[in-house]
Write a structure and sequence with these properties.
The protein has 427 residues and is α+β, with helices and mostly antiparallel strands. The chain is built from nine helices and 18 strands. Strand 16 and strand 17 form a beta hairpin. It has two domains: 115 residues, Rieske Iron-sulfur Protein, CATH 2.102.10.10; 272 residues, Naphthalene 1,2-dioxygenase Alpha Subunit, Chain A, domain 1 (Alpha-Beta Complex), CATH 3.90.380.
């Protein structure tokens, strides 16, 4: 468990808090591309880390992410006019470009230079395969965007969903780090796919290792006949976890995986962005089944107000929860803890080893950040911007030596480069 002080340290993320200032040093998902799909389309409201923002795509297709409230007298720019390479406030006509510069103050006298002294908050953005990422930290220290495998594939090989979570970001993030709940929360009364393996061994052994991107989390289950079912999840510091989702290709390699990111809206709400990709084929509707349970404004159709549409007959005959879709299972488990769970009240066991390791890592890194002002795991050297070792996957292997089975899953990019030419990625 955490002390109340430790819990406050990792869960509070508004500007000026240690964890909030640390998260701002990374590229984080801000909104989906299709929220502002075309040049000069209506802007979108965005709330991240307690900050009220507005996003727009200008006439030239550039993306702006600005403080929502006009620098003049505070009117929301969400209601503004997106026109001629700028967002214009409807109150007095102040116009802003994507960098936050004030282009026009038409209510001022002709020849006024007032606008030249004005600038609003604007954050750099990067659009990657359906997600618009933002960097909200110091502008002189913008890191490289990591060259993740999923950022390099064709757009039609990717899918993304976004869902509103009525709880602190840490509750969702910790759920992603916990492989033991697969045997229970996501149990279906069938032996299809991986269900047999989850049900055969409901108490996996855990291994963890620190890496240059965060942590690698390995769950090992007994698969019989001296074989081990190995599931590798990847904690991408500070707010994302890559999890193995998909099927095997002809070579036996997983055909892709998903990255689930939990971004604070404020201290009691969060956004869950799920990004998935397929290495060798286009995405189908079946791949994006999660969309079926997400309604307008990214609110889930099964939610706390309707008890996640739990069906007690389904719970008795079809699956462990009586709920449809993993997203509903996960949201029920994490939201029903309360909006901001007090971790000083929990009772952890051996099955929580991965979660404990992630918490310790976060506490260590935020304290280092407080002491030094330096954020960990940033990519600043282009030659080391290789990310194949962040892969998430699963397999049934002989014995338990997963390092030998996936030699490209190194601890650092430097190590990866030394084996990259000699070892094919994945199996």
């Amino acid at each position: 468990m955490l002390t109340k002080e430790q819990n406050e340290l990792v869960t509070r993320t508004s500007a000026g808090t240690p964890m909030g200032d640390l998260i701002r040093r990374y590229w984080i998902p801000a909104l989906m591309s299709d929220e502002i799909p075309t040049p000069d389309c209506p802007p979108a409201q965005v709330k991240l880390l307690g900050e009220e923002l507005v996003a727009f795509r200008d006439t030239n297709g550039r993306i702006g992410l600005l403080a929502e409230h006009c620098h003049h007298r505070g009117t929301s720019l969400f209601y503004g006019r997106n026109e001629e390479c700028g967002l214009r406030c409807v109150y007095h006509g102040w116009k802003y470009d994507v960098e936050g510069n004030v282009l026009d103050t038409p209510a001022e006298p002709a020849g006024s230079t007032f606008k030249d002294r004005m600038k609003t908050t604007a954050y750099p953005t990067k659009e990657v395969n359906g997600i618009i990422f933002a960097y909200m930290g110091p502008q002189g220290k913008i890191p490289l965007f990591p060259n993740y495998e999923w950022a390099q594939v064709a757009a039609d090989h990717c899918y993304v969903t976004k869902a509103y979570q009525e709880c602190n970001y840490m509750q969702g993030l910790e759920g992603e780090c916990d492989s033991s709940h697969l045997s229970w929360l996501h149990r279906a009364f069938t032996s299809e796919t991986d269900q047999r393996l989850y049900q055969t061994d409901g108490a996996p052994a855990y291994e963890t290792e620190e890496t240059d991107f965060g942590l690698r989390l390995i769950a090992l289950r007994d698969a019989g006949e001296d074989q081990t079912y190995v599931r590798v999840s990847t904690y991408l510091f500070p707010c994302a976890v890559a999890v193995p989702v998909g099927t095997k290709d002809a070579s036996g390699r997983l055909d892709g995986y998903e990255v689930h990111t939990y971004i604070p809206v404020d201290d009691t709400h969060s956004w869950r962005f799920d990004f998935g990709f397929k290495r060798a084929r286009t995405v189908t509707d079946k791949d994006v089944h999660r969309r079926q349970v997400i309604g307008p404004n990214f609110r889930r159709i099964p939610n706390a107000a309707n008890h996640y549409l739990q069906d007690r007959e389904m719970q008795r005959t079809k699956n462990f929860t009586g709920m449809v879709d993993f997203l509903s299972h996960d949201s029920m488990a994490t939201e029903s803890m309360g909006a901001l769970f007090d971790r000083s009240q929990e009772h952890l066991g051996l099955s929580d080893k991965a979660v404990i390791t992630v918490r310790r890592h976060m506490l260590d890194k935020v304290k280092e950040f407080q002491d030094t002002g330096e954020a960990p795991h940033l990519v600043t050297d282009p030659e080391l911007n290789v990310m194949d070792h962040t892969e998430s996957t699963y397999d049934v292997i002989d014995g338990r030596d997963w390092h030998a089975h996936w030699p490209h899953m190194t601890s650092t990019a430097q190590e990866l480069l030394s084996v990259k030419d000699a070892v094919p990625a994945g199996r």
